[in-house]
# Entry
Amino acid sequence: MSPIATGVPVHAPGIREGTPCLQTEQSFNRPSQDEHWVRITTFLQTGGKYAELSQEDQIRYQWVVSATVRIMENRFRQMQLGIISEDDLAAGGGAANTWWFRSEHFLDSWQSRDQTIRWNPEFLEFMETEILGLR
# Structure
């Protein structure tokens, strides 16, 4: 298993502490401590709209959306290969994020981009039918 996936600190020669690569990993591993993410989620959870976010914050939000959906896609593929059961799709965030996936701000974000160029058609159909309830 990847050290990043297990939360084990990664020591990469030639990459200094505080570089964008490490900052991104650190922010993803501790989103509740990332001041930008806290500000964005607080705004959205208190009635703010995705379209009202600055362009920079929309990009930050999209990054988290893509990372979270990529986890879901990985589990979907593992289920197809018989590695995990359908029940395991919800483990550790996957389909358990349905409440967030179906939120107005997530759906606004999702529908603001052409998802057909980002995801495999089979996964996209599953995501939009079973998880998002759009089809």
Remarks:
- Residues 55-80 form the longest helix (26 residues).
- The chain is about 55% helix and 0% strand.
- The two ends are 35 Å apart (CA to CA).
